[in-house]
Amino acid sequence: MFSIDGLEYLKLFSEAQAEIIPGGVLFLYIEKDIIKWRKASTKFDLDIFNIGEQIKSDSIAAKAMAQKTILKENVPRLLYGSRFYTVAIPMSNEKNEAVGAFSMLIPKLHPVVKSFKDFAPIISEMFPEGATMFVTDLQRILYKQASAKFDIEDLKKGDILAENSIAKNVIKTEKEIIEELDSSVFGIDVLEACYPLFDEDNTDEIVATLTIITPKEVAASLRDMSDNLESNLTGIASAIEELAASASQIHVNEQELNSEIKEIITLSEEINEISAFIKEIADETKMLGLNAAIEAARAGEAGKGFGVVAEEIRNLSQQSKSTVPKINSITEHIKTKVMSVSEKSMNSLASSQEQASATEEITASIEEITASTEELNNIAKKL
What we know:
The chain is of the alpha+beta class. Helices cover about 55% and strands about 20% of the residues. A hairpin with a 5-residue loop joins strand 5 and strand 6 (about 100-105).
């Protein structure tokens, strides 16, 4: 037991050590069964132990006074809602009677929680897009660490866990939960992973959780780009299909046009044949007219009228003959033009064939790009 005469020194020492002890501490002095003095650190406090309150008869302080010996005890969360390690030192008077107890309550933190401030700043900066990390007990957020790139400002140290929060669900199920959340929750697409932390002595008891939240902005952008690209490619592919159909129709039309041009050339050649035939008739008619004129001259006055007719036949023959070169000239001109059109038609036909082939190649390329876009979308979903 410690002498009551040293109580003030204990108080001074405790006040000096309250903010130094890692994890925090709560000092109490109990006189008989009433709390007379307390000193809590800013890191740890229990509002259930206040000055003027009466302690329970089965508390460690009461036991230490009864047994006149220093007692140590691990207090489970079930009793006071928080795990802590406590030491009770009985204080005696000059008659060696236990008149009080000096207690020290130190929070019992999971090793991950205890070292959070050491590793969290490093881990959070290792994620390419940054990360926000926090640890909780079973009621509230104990510590939070955000990277320079990414911080969820709505989450703060000391916040009470919402019933539908991922940490609360992990506490209920005692299993890790990894889920994707859309921008309706934190204003940006994120991946949230929460892990249960179990008591190091009793592995069946969950005592805390560790949560890591990483943004999925790049993945979301990739998905949007992929969706837009896929949509645009679909539209382009549709337009190219229509173009290919048009090219095919043009090809068919060009074939028909080329066929008809060949028919026109054939008809031109037939016109030339007819012109030659007319020339032959004109030559023969001229000869007949000449013969008729000779016979009319022989007939004298009686054949005078027949001679006039013969002259008209010769004139008509001459006119027919003079028309033939004009027909031939026009026919040759038509033939020349038609041949020019035919040549252009053949070039157009070849171009339309090339266009159709190129269109098919473009369509195949777009199908490959579309497949790549789908794969890009799948990769984005996995990020």
